[in-house]
Amino acid sequence: QVQLVESGGGLVQAGGSLRLSCAASGRTFSSAAMAWFRQAPGKEREFVATMLSNSRSAYYSDSVKGRFTISREKAKNTVDLQMNSLKPEDTAVYYCAAGALYLSVAESNYNYWGQGTQVTVSS
């Protein structure tokens, strides 16, 4: 059974930083993309960042580019999201996703999802 488990969410003041981690078990994603999405209250889930297994190819949404950094560690089958200069509008439940065959912003291309971790940024 494949599982993705996120950790690292919490409450932080605007301008602060948080690091989210996602650990995959049940299969390796060494040849697939892993990504982060988020869903704010009352809004649809949206793409945040994605990275291929080579850890050199990544893509970010415009809203987080320059503030967030996605990284992967193949040996540990994990994907992290370093979030700096956080803003209140970054408040959301953040989801880890895996299994896309290429860099993709579309939810439908990811076969596996975590349960999510809450990030709250206070002003």
Describe this structure in words.
With 123 residues, the protein is mainly β. 0% of the residues lie in helices and 50% in strands. It contains no helices and 11 strands. The strands form 2 sheets. Strands 2, 4, 5, 6, 9, 10 and 11 form a 7-stranded mixed beta sheet that branches. A 4-stranded antiparallel beta sheet has the order 1-3-8-7, with no helix packed on it. 33% of the residues are buried.
Distance between the termini: 40 Å
Structural class: mainly beta
Global morphology: globular
Estimate percent helicity: under 10%
Instruction: Give a short account of the largest sheet.
Output: 7 strands, mixed
Give helix and strand order, one letter per element, not per position.
EEEEEEEEEEE
Short description:
With 123 residues, this protein is mainly beta.
Topology:
Elements: E1 3-7, E2 10-13, E3 18-25, E4 33-39, E5 46-51, E6 58-60, E7 68-73, E8 78-83, E9 92-100, E10 112-113, E11 117-122
Task: Record keyword descriptors for this entry.
globular, 123 residues, mainly beta, seven-stranded mixed sheet, four-stranded antiparallel sheet
